[in-house]
Every structure is written in C-alpha cells, then in structure tokens.
Inverse folding.
C-alpha cells in the first residue's frame, strides 16, 4: 500500500506547517518533501488543507458486548474515523464486563473484525480478580472505578485497592470519585429531582478525595497511574504539587467546553460522571493543560439513548457521546487562541500514545505510522444530531458552530474516511504497548 498526499500543509510536531507532499509505504511515513513524484496506489489531492497526525482517544465506551443497541465496535469506530480519531482505548464496563483475559481476547477478536481504526482495551478491576489483572498481557491498562457509574465495576475498599496497586506493573487508570462520600451526599438530596444536583452530590471533594487516594497508593508502590477525566480546579492544583514522572492525567471536552449552566438547557443530557463543574473549574483545566499538569485529552465517549436520558434525573444514565466532536471542538478553541497547533497535537495525538507506551504514533515524521487526518481549518458548520455517526444519534454540542473539520482520515496508510463516508473493507489494527512507563518525549 503506497499513499501519496499531494499539496498539503503538513503539521510538524513543532506546530509549523510544511507546504508539500507526504508519501507513505507499508503503513509508515516514508517521505515528506516538495513534489514527490512517486507512484502510489492512492493519491489524495489535499488542496492546501492541513494534514495532521490522527488523534488517539484514550478513553471511550463502545458498549460491545451487551449494549450494541447504543454503540458497537463498528459504529463507535466509524464515529471515531469521522472525527479524525485513528486509535482508541476502550473501557471495560461492557456487559459482561472485561474483567478476565478471556473477555479481553473476545473484545480483541470482535474489534479485529469490526473496527475501522486502531484499538486497544482496558481490563477492569474487581475486588477479587487480581489473578486476571496480572495475566492480562494484552490490555492497555487496568481500569479501576473508585466510584460507581455505568455498569457494576467498583473497587472502593482500601485493602482491595492496596492489593491491586501492590501487584504488577501495568498502568492503572482510575475513575476517581469517592464512593462513600457520594453515597452519603446522595442520601441528603433524595427528595430532589434537579439534574443540577448531580454536580452537588458528586462534588469537588469527592473527586479530590479519590484522586488523592490513588496518588498516595501509586507513590507507595511507585506504580504507573493515570487519572482519568480530571474535572476540578482542586484536583489540578493537587496534581501540580504531587505529580511524579509515573503519574499522568487527562481532561475531556465535556469539562473543557461545558459548565453547570448546561443543566438549564440540556437537563439530564448533560449528566455524566464526574459531573460538569463551574466556570472556575473549566478555566483551571485549560490552565492545567497549558502548563503541562494535564497531559492529554480523551473524550469518555459514553453513549446513552435519548429515551433513557428522557427518564429524567436521577433515573437517566450518566454519560455523553463525544468521540466525533473532540477534534472540531479543539480546532475551534485553537482558532479562538486557546491553544496552539503544537499543543493540540501534543494533547490529542502524541501524549496519549506516549503515556500508554504505544510506539511510533502521534506525530508526522519519517518512520512514524501513517495515521493521519486531513483537516479543513476554515470549514464552519454547526454540530448536528442528525449527522452523528454514533448509534445514539445525538451530541451534547448540537447546534454549536465549530470551525475546523476532518475531511479524510487515514489509518496505517489507508484512507478509511473520506468526503463524509467510511470506505468499504477497511480495518484498524490492535495496538501494542512497548513501555509500562511514559516514554520519554521526543523533541
Ligand atoms: O458518565 C459516565 N458514563 N462516566 C463514566 O466514566 C462512565 C460512562 C458510561 O460508561 O456511561
């Protein structure tokens, strides 16, 4: 497979745009030059648009097996391709949950058949599956729900958490909300049915308590820790002080672009865990990203049906879809001066790969994987529920006008998404993890 992209503005890791051609062979970037006159199986006329590394989304929930009516590995990966996302890491709270090597093997086989972009999977921790966690070689990491959410995965007792942190070397990713505090606070809000109470029940302290507990255990055992979807200013300040080279964290667009004001217009559509927060928290997350405290961006793509969301608070399930809107949202923020192209690539492409030990992904350079997305930086259009590829058919950003949309997505040197459609017979690859600690940054 030889691919030639002609007349592109190629995004270099520095954020500089190089006007020229890119040639990929055998899935790798082989040349970046002016007027590459080589034969290729596929030629893309880029028309001066920006060619950037494909996004890696390190936190999605694709619902297969068990809830394929909401999403499966086909629909979820297609939504990813449309959004310029060329690799994803998927969470274990499916049904049955991914809590054993056998369940992991099953998911990998399903993805091999159905996923149009590259894929990796977490194994979920339970209070008593340590043997499985230690045997799950093929997992990108161990997921611990320290607070309960969608599904029945929960580990919140000190001795269970301690045992998991103490044994093994694989990355541990935590959903950090303190279950005991949430239960106590929920009891106080019992009579109330206001979706805004969701953010009061699962308050900032609940998030900080669990994050602090995970950091304490990671330090006790020098264990590789990734704190998922940071949502508060106090956690950001805490991690600014407490982070070590083996601790990393992420933010998600829901917390970077929405605040508790959204409950007034969206009601339970805006309900998620950890909840949306104040403008102060939102600003702190942006500052955390810019200063390097927060390492990367994921989406926590968590599709639920509109009919389920219509059940009202507190019966509606928590979570919002997001895999196909994260890049347009961030490109719009970049246009508005919130970040540079170098930062965007670092947060969305390079750092997710580096933090999970995936080699050769997330930057455009010779020898690196040809996972790419061609982006029209000036295309301005609203997000529309009707246009979503996710099976649930809605977006929390419906109606928001965004500037900067993917035109084509390329995985391993093959075009998988182009002009609004996923191409036939395209497949992603299973990701491999070469390092259990963050790989050193390449300058
Ligand atoms: O709101 C959420 N929904 N947060 C999570 O972490 C899980 C997710 C889901 O799977 O629905």
């Amino acid at each position: 497979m030889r691919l030639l992209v002609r007349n592109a503005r190629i995004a270099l890791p520095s954020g500089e745009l190089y006007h020229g051609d890119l040639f990929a062979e055998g899935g790798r970037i082989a040349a970046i030059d002016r007027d590459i006159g080589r034969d290729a199986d596929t030629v893309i006329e880029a028309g001066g648009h920006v060619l950037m590394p494909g996004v890696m989304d390190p936190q999605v929930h694709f619902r297969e097996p068990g809830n394929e009516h909401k999403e499966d590995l086909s629909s979820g990966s297609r939504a990813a391709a449309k959004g310029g996302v060329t690799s994803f890491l998927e969470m274990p709270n499916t049904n049955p949950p991914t809590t054993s090597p056998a369940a992991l093997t099953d998911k990998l086989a399903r993805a091999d058949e159905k996923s149009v972009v590259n894929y990796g999977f977490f194994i979920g921790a339970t209070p008593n599956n340590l043997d499985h966690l230690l045997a799950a070689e093929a997992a990108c990491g161990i997921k611990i729900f320290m607070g309960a959410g969608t599904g029945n995965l929960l580990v919140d007792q000190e001795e269970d958490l301690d045992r998991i942190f103490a044994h093994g070397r694989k990355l541990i990713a935590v959903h950090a909300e303190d279950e005991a505090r949430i239960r106590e606070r929920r009891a106080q809000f019992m009579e109330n049915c206001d979706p805004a109470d969701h953010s009061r029940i699962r308050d900032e302290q609940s998030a900080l308590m669990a994050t602090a507990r995970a950091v304490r255990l990671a330090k006790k055992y020098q264990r590789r820790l990734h704190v998922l979807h940071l949502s508060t200013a106090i956690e950001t300040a805490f991690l600014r002080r407490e982070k070590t080279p083996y601790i990393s964290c992420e933010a998600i667009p829901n917390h970077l672009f929405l605040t508790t004001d959204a409950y007034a217009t969206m009601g339970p559509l805006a309900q998620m865990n950890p909840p949306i927060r104040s403008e102060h928290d939102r600003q702190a997350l942006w500052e955390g990203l810019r200063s390097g405290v927060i390492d990367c961006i994921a989406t926590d793509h968590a599709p639920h049906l509109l009919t389920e969301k219509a059940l009202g608070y507190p019966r509606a399930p928590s979570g919002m879809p997001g895999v196909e809107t994260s890049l347009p949202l961030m490109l719009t923020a970049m246009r508005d001066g919130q970040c540079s192209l170098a930062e965007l690539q670092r947060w969305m492409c390079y750092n997710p790969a580096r933090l999970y030990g995936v080699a050769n992904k997330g930057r455009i350079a010779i020898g690196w994987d040809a996972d790419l997305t061609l982006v029209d930086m000036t295309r301005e259009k609203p997000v529309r529920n009707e246009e979503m590829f996710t099976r649930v058919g809605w977006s929390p950003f419906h109606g928001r006008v965004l500037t900067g949309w993917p035109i084509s997505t390329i995985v391993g040197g093959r075009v998988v998404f182009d002009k609004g459609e996923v191409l036939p017979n395209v497949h992603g690859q299973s990701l491999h993890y070469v390092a259990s600690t963050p790989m050193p940054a390449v300058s």
The chain has a mean pLDDT of 96. The first helix runs from residue 73 to 82. Residues 61, 93, 149-150, 175, 272-273, 300, 302, 318-319 surround DOR (CB under 6 Å). The first strand starts at residue 2 and ends at 11.
